[in-house]
Amino acid sequence: MSSNVVHAIVKAGGRQEKVSVGDVVIVDKLVAEVGDTVDFQPLMLIDGDKVTTGAEELEKVKVTAEVLAPAKGPKISIVKYKNKTGYRKRMGHRQKLTKVKITSIA
């Protein structure tokens, strides 16, 4: 069962993502405008039955993506409370993210 789809494991921010051409992935915030192209560092390349993990071969591989839009993560509520002192504090946080579309793996 081999397929002709090329997959790559790329390092995007603090995480690793499995991507192929045409995938839309949400990664940590990138310093890029909408429509810009960005390159990701591949950690592994899967081409059918062939798996490439060597650093020398991966230096030749380039994973290119186009920035689609900025995004925000889910709302996280932070509540601090101390008993018997009247101390209550509420905060919220939404992580800034970027939506990218993988255009080529070459």
From TrEMBL:
Database matches in NCBIfam families: L21
UniProt KW rRNA-binding keyword: yes
Organism: Boudabousia marimammalium
Entry keywords, A to Z: Ribonucleoprotein, Ribosomal protein, RNA-binding, rRNA-binding
GO molecular function, one term: structural constituent of ribosome
Taxonomic superkingdom: Bacteria
HAMAP family: Ribosomal_bL21
Protein name (record): Large ribosomal subunit protein bL21
GO cellular component terms listed in the entry, alphabetical order: cytoplasm; ribonucleoprotein complex; ribosome
Family: Belongs to the bacterial ribosomal protein bL21 family.
GO biological process entries: translation
Keyword Coiled coil applies: no
InterPro entries per record: bL21-like, bL21-like_sf, Ribosomal_bL21, Ribosomal_bL21_CS
Subunit architecture: Part of the 50S ribosomal subunit. Contacts protein L20.
Functional note: This protein binds to 23S rRNA in the presence of protein L20.
